[in-house]
Amino acid sequence: MDELTDYSQSAPTITSTSSGTQRQDSNHNNTKSSKKQRNIIMNSLRKRVNAGKVSYSSMDEQTKQEMRIMRRKNRHLVEQHYKIDQENHVLLPGVPTYDEDLARDFHDFFNLICLVPIIALNVLNWDWDKLFQSIHSKEGIPFIHCWTGEYFYLFFYVTLAYFIVDLVWVTVIPRAVKSPSTIIQHHIATILYLIIPFHVQSFRFLMGVCMSVEMNTWFLIARRVFNKQGFPPWTIDLPYLFSVRVKLISICFYITWISIRCVLYPYVLVVFYKMVQSGNLRENERMFMPVGTCLHSVFCVLNVRWTIDLINSKIRQWKTKTNDIASGL
User: Cα(275)–Cα(187) distance, rounded to whole angstroms?
Assistant: First the structure.
């Protein structure tokens, strides 16, 4: 709280001038400077709260409100899909509860419906017998040999249409999602990424690999849609069918998160490296390789960031429980 006191004492004062225009300019400049200084102080305070140096409960209501506004502006993916203790900033059991919101609900159901044909078409473009055999083989690059591309153009146009429609949707109705700017940036980057497999036939298997992440996206949305009450998935006294559904979705969510975002996506960078090392790249492949590597690296960094956020929240939750148990002994 000392920082907030210092802020109020050091806030710039507005001096009167003989000219009305100069007075307005002075007001504008001082207000802009005050907001900038306030943001710096609040960011510093937020870091101290996250580090456990300042208690959230010790703040006055105005400061708490400003902290909540700042957190809404900088929401991580973890905060959008998990319950967070605002005082200790740790993960809580279950998923967030959601009030009725027609715009968000329509968008969620749109995604749950439209992602199914994309996932199905992706599955149809692979030779699964070869894929399962290649998992146990150390020779060659498995993904290249297992991709058939039999339904590639249908897969491509359906996927492109989905991202364009969703991009327009979020742009026109931003309240349908909690982080519209992140979704818009992601969709623009994805559309640019889709250009590469369309023009370079030998890279088309990469579209199938990368679009497999939509399975995890489907389960991510399903966790919210099919459990609006926010019940923890491992609660014992839930209705049987509801309990099975919530548990199954949660298990599939974590399996696809780890296998696709944490394993498969980084492995694609290894595939890129092996393709370059082979020295057999054609001219168009050499031209698109740097672009594809940069775009895919961005997605990998985002996955790492979201995974770290999730792990850190779990660690803070575990430490809080440990401290509570120790204090009760």
Answer: 27
